[in-house]
Amino acid sequence: MTYAAPINDMRFALEAAADLWSLRARFPDLDEGLLAAILEGAAALSSETLAPLNRVGDQNGATLANGDVRTPPGFREAYDAFAAGGWQGLYAPAEYGGQGLPRSVAMPVLEMMQSANLGFSLLPLLTLGAIEAIEQHGAQDQKDLYLAKLISGEWSGTMNLTEPQAGSDLGMMTTKAVQQDDGSYAISGQKIFITYGEHDCTPNIVHLVLARIEGAPAGSRGISLFIVPKFLDADGARNALRCIGIEEKMGVHASPTCTMAYEGATGWLIGEANRGLVAMFTMMNAARLLVGVQGVALAEAAYQKALAYARERKQGGGFIIEHPDVRRMLLTMKAKTQAARMICYACAVAADAGDKPREDLLTPLAKAWSTDIGVEAASLGVQVHGGMGFIEETGAAQYYRDVRITTIYEGTNGIQAIDLYGRKLKGDGGAEMKKLIAEAHEAAAQLGTDSAKRLAAAASVLEDATAALLGSERDDALAGATPYLALAGDVTGGMLWAQALKRAPSEEQAALFAFYAETVLARARSYLPDIKIGAAALIEPN
User: Fold this and answer.
1) pTM for the structure as a whole
2) What pLDDT does residue 335 have?
3) CATH hierarchy code of domain 281-537
């Protein structure tokens, strides 16, 4: 499959909307020349190496034989190229071999790679989470042993949370940890849905595993986090863990989703005992933003494929792109993709700036709103192709199948809506959301266009909805949490676009924002009945 990185759209989202250069004081080594070189290098790797393997990975999938998982043809060589380019350590600490750049610079890089080949890109994505967890919560000897090898890409990492009986409710986990005389722990239990839990791209895999120490408190308060490597030492001693199955999935066939059996495997505690969720949430929060970027990435890939098809497919005497309805679908894909891109990049800039309240508010929007857009765009991509979209050979269907998981893993989008209400709105009494709404009104006033008037009106609706949720009982608020998140995403995307156009006027972006304002922001008030419906209306279906 072909893919060309939309560098101009990315730079507008990163520099003008997310305000990358506000980070100059924190990252003095980053300049326009370095940013351009990074984006151009990532674009070349994505289009020339990863994109040609996308369909190969989908058709061949990962395979399991005698406990060994083989990735699709070409993946191992592609991973070697990825690691040799230093891409794994783009925003990792320089003291362990990373480049020490802002994570926001990595967002367009990761977007490119995920657009080109999501199945491949899940491998380095999980390693990013392992790096962050060990860096923030590991002991010094653990950092010294693991970080350099993970950051270089020599080794890879995983997250092991889910068990057959314990999905989002981690308090139901039964994997146990028994302390040994040497201070290590014997880890026993089964984990499911482990992305790249076993593969042939790196010689060692560093598993981060949630388990319960004998005698620990019940529920989530008694969970600890452990480092459990596939190989224990340089002599190649194999740990007592193995992959006992890989899932047959709707999409991302190239990525092995493993069932892992830990049979008294040796592991070492990260951080404090019974405080594993604190460390694991470091990985999960980072992963939620990166999954949001996956939504953007697949939306962009689906758009590019649909646009190319519309320009070459003839029907009724002309190319189908001449039909207004086809242009409407394509513009919807492009406009919403750009808004989602802005939200994800802005979340990353907030993290780089140390603006924790804004990062926390934007994270559920980045994860849920962007992946919902990914599903919508991929569906529209199939529709643009017509009957050929339902046929696998065009490739449109793969984007639809691949993107569907993004609304589910790393906390379903319903859980993101609960988080937005329960932890973010209720947590500070709505202060950060009210600040965002005020910024939206200010951006609209400064821009002063008809599109900006749509933004101001939508921001007022969000203000009404926020007051309604804060004034409701918990169950009533949760009944409207998902449409509330959708409205908040719509307004936040519009706000960032208006701010960007004020910083960097662009006729092309202004026209796209005008379409977004008339087709997205203009519908803001229609959310209110759904947001205010209340729990009593949600009867149990027969």
Assistant:
1) 0.96
2) 98
3) 1.20.140.10
